[in-house]
Specification:
This protein is α+β, with helices and mostly antiparallel strands. Helix content is 49%, strand content 16%. Strand 18 and strand 19 form a beta hairpin. It starts with 10 loop residues before the first helix and ends with a strand.
Length: 735
């Protein structure tokens, strides 16, 4: 393919470019018509002559990178007509020489669509995505729209990584290496592009830890001759036995990648000589159709007869392939000199998929949905549910959702694939969202199991449901799959919306009965004072009977007309009313004013929940009822400053009253049994009742709120002292 080189390229760069152009032309022959090649060449020549920069902002030759990307894609993935044209035209579109509309008119809608995908990626992939959460999230979302764009970006990343060795901008090189390892290498792994994945990881190690990379590379070079001799000694007798069995095959050995060796050294905490599976033998069989699996197992049995196999290291991805289509039979055997050797058995078709990836060859060419779609959906679910920073996103993507798979059956024999660690609840949501939402447990292999039971390979799982069951907040701590987590959050939000609708209706109805006109702005001010960030949460609490709409309306009217209330009600003008049970009259317990007065209506304020023995005062509310507050109440200072004429003395009469609620906040270690020990102390305390308990744990600590029914504060003080003696309890405070 002819190209017109600008004068800014040096002689060496020109020679490289012409060589690459010639190599690419040979790859394109037979895949592009002569007319297409001529048209593409003309566009490239004219565009380069007019305005295409020879180097990018980092000094790398644009045309050279473009041709290398096209060649790498054709050789390592697939010589796809449309993708190769899109790669070649991309720098022209990127620099504004061609518009996407020009591409569509000249080359069709599909190639233009690829450019739109690449443009979307370019908005975020500024080599700063490793530290910018929005960039990283946007980058992966844009990648997830078209699997071909993912593959193009993976290959572009590989070519860039090959081109930046010894680049002067060390910080930029490290960012590129970080993104290549954490994003593109993992995406390549999901798509079965293992060769690209290995090279990306090796180059990333080289740029981020050159000392370690160089040490391992030198050691491998030093032992190359002995390693090759060992591989030959292992292969020769195996080849002979396989030929005797009438199998047609190719057998070869390979040393594992440097990054893989380094990971094993760190994981096993050994030096290079301690890595027992430093290299692998691959047997590639010329088998087709129904004979593929049987020939692989035959070859395995022959090798297992010659060398002792390690059953713990057996990996069968032939019977049930990986989600990305990978099929292979892996075995580890004890070879000569008592060395462990990994042997892989696969057919030509399986090897093609393993080397270049199933999706690259098949999925985007119009085939039916497969595991690749399942993986893509998983990536989208990760993005939708992730609420942490970029490192958590990278961690989620790095964790192969199908790397450690478990396979479970329904009672009818249907086989389901789930990620390692999946629970009964995950299995239920995997079947259907409605099944998951109503799941109460499962019968696994004939035994009843709870929601958090972890599925094991080969389990037969029958989900048990109940019509009354609904998703709970704690379910989010049980499930491992993004799909289940999404559905649970969706159901919880729907339930909150339902309660909010009920709460809004209840408040409006109560306001109408009292002839109060509600103003949204005033409501928002009041609920913010109550500590709510969103109106939805406030109305949901009304719907769940956690907030009394009547009391809220009292606060609402007081907020609107404080002066008019002050004119009509004062301590001096207060008229004693007859005992009103609905108002909570308990005049025998309190002395209000200078002497005890029977028939006085009063209530204990909910904001501070005073109990017998607390230092208290009375506040005359607008409805004529005395509200009893603690002097330490958060609202006390405001009340006394703004309404001193409505404050009245209140003392306890000396008679113990009925059981009243007090709230305790308990903080401690999240140890097994600590909550049980606390509740046990409360249950054994005479005259004390536990009315409500809520526990929240995080990072090994828990915080709990206990609503205790007690008769007086001395009883509460004694209980607090006892709870503090429980092992693991750090603090107990009345709130």
């Amino acid at each position: 393919m002819e190209t017109n080189i600008t004068d800014t390229l040096n002689l060496a760069e020109r020679k490289v470019l012409f060589s690459l152009a010639s190599r690419l032309r040979s790859l394109l022959e037979g895949r592009l018509t002569p007319e297409e090649i001529a048209s593409l060449s003309a566009v490239l020549r004219e565009s380069m002559r007019r305005s295409l920069s020879a180097h990018d902002e980092k000094g790398l030759p644009v045309a050279e990178l473009t041709l290398k990307t096209a060649i790498a894609f054709a050789e390592m993935v697939d010589p796809d007509h449309n993708i190769l044209i899109a790669i070649l035209l991309h720098p022209l579109v990127k620099q504004g020489v061609l518009s996407v509309e020009d591409v569509e008119s000249l080359w069709g809608a599909d190639i233009a669509g690829l450019h739109r995908g690449l443009e979307e990626v370019a908005r975020f992939s500024n080599r700063n995505s490793a530290t910018n959460q929005d960039n990283f999230r946007g980058l992966v979302i844009s990648l997830a729209h078209d699997i071909r764009v993912i593959i193009m970006m993976i290959v572009k990343s590989l070519v860039l990584m090959r081109s930046i060795n010894l680049h002067p901008d060390d910080a930029w090189v490290r960012n590129v290496a970080f993104e290549a390892n954490c994003l593109y290498a993992q995406l390549a792994h999901r798509l079965g592009l293992y060769k690209i994945k290995g090279e990306l990881e090796d180059l990333s190690l080289k740029y981020t830890n050159r000392e370690i990379y160089t040490q391992i590379a030198h050691k491998l070079n030093a032992t190359k001759r002995s390693r090759e001799a060992y591989i030959k000694a292992f292969i020769d007798p195996v080849r002979s036995e396989l030929e005797k069995a009438g199998l047609k095959f190719e057998i070869k050995g390979r040393t594992k990648s440097i990054s893989s060796i380094w990971n094993k050294m760190r994981k096993q905490k050994v030096d290079l000589p301690g890595i027992y599976d430093l290299f692998a033998i691959r047997v590639i069989l010329d088998s087709e159709g129904a004979k593929e699996k049987s020939d692989c197992w035959l070859a395995y049995s022959i090798v297992a007869d010659m060398y002792t196999a390690n059953p713990a290291r057996m990996r069968d991805w032939i019977s049930i392939p990986k989600s990305n289509g990978y099929e292979s039979l892996h075995a580890t055997v004890m070879g000569p000199d008592n060395k462990w050797v990994e042997v892989q058995f696969r057919t030509r078709r399986m090897d093609l998929v393993a080397e270049k990836g199933l999706a690259a060859h098949w999925r985007y060419k119009g085939g039916k949905a497969d595991g690749t779609d399942q993986w893509m959906n998983n990536i989208r679910d990760i993005l939708e549910t992730a609420d942490a920073g970029p490192m958590q996103l990278m961690k989620n993507i790095h964790m192969d959702p199908f790397g450690k798979e478990v396979f479970a059956f329904t009672p009818k024999g249907d086989l389901f694939r789930l990620s390692g660690g999946a629970t009964v609840l995950d299995f239920a949501f995997h079947i259907h969202s409605n099944v998951g939402a109503r799941c109460t447990g499962a019968i696994v292999n004939g035994q009843l199991r709870k929601l958090n039971y972890k599925i094991q390979n080969g389990d037969t799982v029958e989900i048990v449901t109940a019509a009354s069951q609904t998703p709970k907040q704690e379910w989010l701590n049980i499930v491992t799959s993004s799909k289940a987590r999404n559905k649970i959050k969706q159901s919880l939000n729907e339930e909150k919306q339902r309660l909010a609708d009920l709460g809004k209706e209840a408040l409006a109805r109560r306001a109408k009965n009292r002839k109060i006109e509600l103003e949204e702005a005033v409501i928002m001010k009041l609920i913010k004072k109550m500590g709510y960030k969103f109106a939805l949460d406030f109305y949901a609490d009304i719907g769940a009977d956690k907030v009394d709409p009547g009391r809220f309306l009292n606060s609402y009217t007081a907020f609107l007309s404080p002066q008019s209330e002050a004119e009509h009600v004062s301590a001096e003008e207060f008229e004693i009313r007859q005992n009103d049970d609905s108002a909570g009259a308990r005049s025998d317990v309190l002395v209000i004013g200078e002497k005890s007065i029977d028939g006085l209506s009063y209530r204990f304020a909910k904001c501070c929940n005073p109990i017998y023995g607390d230092d208290v005062f009375g506040f005359i509310s607008s409805d004529g009822v005395v509200k009893i507050h603690k002097n330490s109440c958060p609202n006390a200072a405001h009340i006394k400053e703004r309404y001193p004429y409505r404050v009245i003395r209140a003392d306890w009469s000396g008679k113990t009253g009925q059981m009243l609620p007090a709230t305790l906040r308990v903080v401690g270690n999240d140890d097994i049994g600590i909550v049980t020990n606390i509740t046990s102390i409360i249950s054994h305390e005479q005259g004390v009742a536990l009315r409500n308990i809520s526990i929240d744990s995080h990072d090994g600590m828990f915080q709990g709120y206990l609503v205790i029914g007690v008769s007086d504060n001395r009883q509460l003080t004694t209980l607090v002292k006892k709870i503090k003696t429980v092992r693991g309890v750090k603090d107990v405070v009345r709130v």
